[in-house]
Design a protein that fits this description.
The structure is a homodimer. By secondary structure, chain A is mainly α. Chain A folds into 2 domains: 7-89, Arc Repressor Mutant, subunit A, CATH 1.10.10; 103-243, Tetracycline Repressor, domain 2, CATH 1.10.357.10. The first copy, chain A, contains 12 helices and no strands. The two termini of chain A are 40 Å apart. Chains A and B meet through α1, α7, α8, α9 and α11 of A and α1, α7, α8, α9 and α11 of B. Chain A binds a DNA duplex through loops.
Chain lengths: 246, 246
DNA sequence: CCATAGTCCTTGCAGTGTATAGTGTTTTTA
DNA sequence: TAAAAACACTATACACTGCAAGGACTATGG
């Protein structure tokens, strides 16, 4: 039997699924709403894209509508809910055809598509992700991935770990790609400086960390390193899943 | 030639490596310091462990020493630096013997050890990680992993993707494990409630997302699910790395 | 028709990081 | 040895945050 249906939670879920069969909270009595939830989310996302997630505040969003911060609350409930709604809203899944050539190709297509979304909205990497939660758009991604694994007869026991690895890897590589992107326009000076300072202060760094030192320097072709890393990782995973057998 | 050695960056690096050959800033003229950087970091970590990273503030730390917030700054520079120092300080690598039985076992030992560290300090998952940065303790982990890959003759081209996947997977699984842990003491009520609300509001959820629905429910044996997921993932990866051949 | 539930808006509070200025202490330099 | 510079500490202040509380207004349901 259902626990007393905590109104806030229900309202949040309604808002999350507002384009998939639910309507936002309920019979609206008061004055007509002057704002629109989708529009609020769009401007929140725009701010996050341009100035980072930290620049998203109830005030900064409301300011774009020449209103004060509290107008936002009737539309989203709390700041945390607002961020969750932005997260799902920004995660709309594009459409593509699953490659039928190999599992590796199909996984690659999925991963690349998700990578692209994360690149468009780098702040998504700062948001938590858990398999069980979230809204319809994030749900779409998971379902699609599971369908691919099913199509290629990946044994059920291997699916949860595969899902975890894929999501984790996409998020990680997208995160570093976004960090590189930011350096591009901000200077990369500090990054380099820190590395130099470390080398200067720890003269035997190369002896202490020979393996790390032996890695190809990140600076070389750094721009597409994350994407290449992702491709390599997906390839590895596909190999493992294929050889796991049915 | 070195750019003018930005004093703040250099000081931060010195602090990071203070136990590995550098000394904290240096010619100190003024009055003796009454606090100790390691002690500051310990209390910051204690607060983060107990109340979450959000509860860590210059004021909350200083209060434990009956001082006001600004005392912290001579020791750490900025809040961001403080967090970075806490991050490295909390990442001390334990010692263990590399299994010689198989690559899979060796990787598993590494991953489990790191997982354990993240479980002890769940807030570490909220901190960014990038291969090129950080302090000595985090460096140790990377070096150790690379040594394992080298020992087992994993081809150099496969190493960066493997590193990325391993770190990403450990962080992701540790993050969900920590989330479960939190639910334990906080109720898990909200989580369940949200799931129920979604099912109630989207009656055809199971038709729309058959694959997701088909997954074993997370609630069953949820406590060790993340650890098991990590083990499975590492196993998959080891299979791929082995069959990649030299 | 009126109570109610909703939006909109202002005010205010507790909390954040940190700039600044002042005071006292220690070490370095002249 | 005296002066000066660099530091630790303290208190105050500023700009910023999320949001509770409450007032004014408005559309709706009983």
């Amino acid at each position: 039997m259902a626990v007393e249906p905590n109104r806030d939670v229900e309202a949040h879920v309604r808002r999350l699924w507002r384009h998939r069969g639910t309507t936002v909270p309920t019979p609206r009595r008061g004055p007509r709403q002057q704002l629109d939830l989708d529009e609020i989310l769009r401007t929140g996302i725009a701010i996050a894209d341009a100035e980072g997630l930290a620049a998203v505040s109830t005030r900064s969003i409301a300011a774009r509508f020449d209103k004060s911060s509290m107008v936002i609350y009737p539309y989203v409930g709390t700041k945390e809910n607002l961020l969750a709604l932005m997260q799902d809203h920004a995660s709309a899944m594009p459409s593509w055809d699953d490659p039928v050539t190999s599992l590796a190709d199909a996984l690659h297509a999925w991963a690349e598509a998700l990578f692209e979304v994360y690149l468009s909205h780098p702040w998504l990497t700062e948001r938590p992700w858990s398999q069980a939660s979230q809204g319809p758009n994030e749900q779409d991604w998971l379902e699609r991935l599971l369908r691919v694994l099913d199509t290629w007869a990946v044994p059920p026991s291997a699916r949860p770990p595969a899902v975890t690895m894929l999501y984790a890897t996409v998020r990680a590589t997208a995160g570093t790609a976004a960090a590189y992107e930011r350096m591009n326009q901000q200077g990369m000076a500090e990054w380099r400086e820190r590395a130099e300072a470390t080398m200067a202060l720890i003269p035997d760094f190369r002896q202490r960390y020979p393996m790390t030192t032996g890695l190809e320097p990140v600076t070389a072709r750094w721009k597409d390193a994350p994407r290449a890393g992702l491709a390599g990782a997906v390839h590895l995973l596909a190999v493992a899943l294929s050889s796991a057998g049915p």
